[in-house]
Amino acid sequence: MSNWIRLVLSAAVIALALPAHAALEKTKVHIAVGGKSAFYYLPLTIAEQLGYFKDEGLDVTISDFAGGSVALRAVVGGSADVVSGAYEHTISLQGKKQFFQAFVQQGRLPQISMAISTAKAATYKSPKDLKGMKVGVSAPGSSTNNLVNQMLGKGGLKKSDVSIVGVGLGAGAIAAMKSGQIDAISNTDPVMTKLEQDGSVKMIADTRTFKGTIEVWGAPLPAGCLYAPIEFIKKNPNTVQALTNAIVRADKWLATASPQDILKTVPEAYLLGDKALYLFSYGKIKEALSLDGSISDVGAKATLKALAAFDDQIKPTDIKLDQTYTNEFVKKANAKYK
């Protein structure tokens, strides 16, 4: 066999081995996320660390911000393409005549907890006792802030009855609580489990489980998603499909991964210096992670009802809920990664 024939056959074998991609409208995609190290966004990290985005032909840049509302502003301002954030923002945005759509889910429960400092715990009997407190959230206007609003409503209080303080989703949030800068905190894991284990707080709301979510919101609510302006999705369907494929693959990997698999995959900085704590926290939120990336119709309706209760800009009759999310790309991704 001549060298030329060998080269042709080798090239053919390599071509067959490479994954086939539909032509991507954009290969370079910028994702904005608020608090990347939180379990809330674990599928995003898994897709990044295991090379799932690259497998789909994507060159993804992920910028980390203090909270979901800040990450959203990056996309609204045009400096990023896609948000990794809470589904509920697509509804809030539509209330302001800005049209965004979620296209793949990372979490099927909010995974946010709220707690009172141990020093204030003795005086707390019900949400009405939040009045006058400084409450730490990841960033004002974020989903952690929405849980505070929900609790205020349960206590018959107004938003102005508390002071909201942005503390991020990592070590800064822990420091703010332990130093007494705030009286209460609404945040994600592993921050909340760390504070709980250290005896710094007393939990008053917990949406890391189905039971706790229903107690707070009355129904399971979709949580972390990838979402983008509807125009971006229409112009870049193959790119959006590739992003969806990567997240669905990460969702499925997490559904069967062992705790040790996760420890080996996430960056060391995520562990807050305590591997045992990280794994304990993961055990608390595991049921909140999406199994297949799909967004529940029931959950979307429940989210609209919950937001309308404390956001005057959201009129349920004016919201076109079917425009706030789609499972079109998720269905194709699940067909690919069974």
Share in helix:
40-55%
Structural class of the helices, strands and pairings?
A: alpha/beta
Could you give the distance between the termini?
41 Å
pLDDT average, as an integer?
92
| SS elements, strand count | 10
Q: Report on the biggest sheet.
A: 5 strands, mixed
CATH class of the largest domain: Alpha Beta
In total, how many domains does the architecture comprise? 2
Q: Which fold name fills CATH's third level, the topology of the largest domain?
A: D-Maltodextrin-Binding Protein, domain 2
Q: Your description of this structure?
A:
- It is a single chain.
- This protein is α/β, with parallel strands linked by helices and 338 residues long.
- The chain folds into two domains: 22-109 and 221-336, 3-Layer(aba) Sandwich (D-Maltodextrin-Binding Protein, domain 2), CATH 3.40.190; 112-206, D-Maltodextrin-Binding Protein, domain 2 (3-Layer(aba) Sandwich), CATH 3.40.190.10.
- The chain is built from 16 helices and ten strands.
